[in-house]
């Protein structure tokens, strides 16, 4: 017999994540290769993938040269948009593309902890082991946390 409470909360969480990707602003398809610290509409450089700190950055987005974060509100949802060295949007998560986040990492310690619990731990449990990435479960993760789409618009 299926636990309807558990199934109901899973459906709500799935719908919440789908709504999150709908509510997140689309990033520009290209940014200046100088990677300004902030883009129009509230996108700011992601401290964990800062182009000024290359090559010691972007551990979660291998292949990206720099990423930006956007938060719909001070708790989320949020998103990352990652770019190659020439400032081109990366749409493939396997090549360093960003993802939609249920919780934004911006803010106080409690909000950062929520981001780690909801977004970072799920990434590790689906995509990483001590020995190698897990393609099947990681694809499921990227299905729920897509890279999103960019728009042809002015970046700054």
Automatic annotation (TrEMBL):
Pfam families: AMOP. InterPro entries: AMOP_dom. Residues 1-145 form the AMOP domain. Residues 1-23 are annotated as: Disordered. SMART domains: AMOP (SM00723). This is AMOP domain-containing protein.
């Amino acid at each position: 017999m299926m636990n309807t409470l558990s199934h109901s909360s899973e459906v709500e969480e799935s719908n919440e994540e789908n709504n999150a990707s709908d509510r997140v602003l689309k990033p520009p398809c290209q940014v200046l290769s100088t990677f300004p610290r902030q883009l129009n509409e509230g996108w700011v450089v992601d401290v964990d993938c800062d182009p000024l700190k290359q090559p010691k950055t972007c551990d979660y987005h291998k292949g990206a040269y720099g990423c930006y974060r956007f938060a719909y509100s001070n708790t989320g949802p949020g998103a990352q948009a990652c770019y190659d060295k020439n400032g081109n949007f990366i749409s493939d998560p396997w090549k360093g593309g960003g993802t939609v986040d249920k919780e934004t990492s911006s803010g106080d310690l409690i909000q950062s902890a929520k981001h780690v619990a909801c977004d970072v731990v799920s990434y590790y449990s689906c995509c990483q082991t001590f020995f190698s990435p897990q393609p099947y479960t990681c694809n499921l993760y990227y299905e729920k946390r897509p890279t999103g789409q960019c728009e042809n618009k002015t970046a700054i």
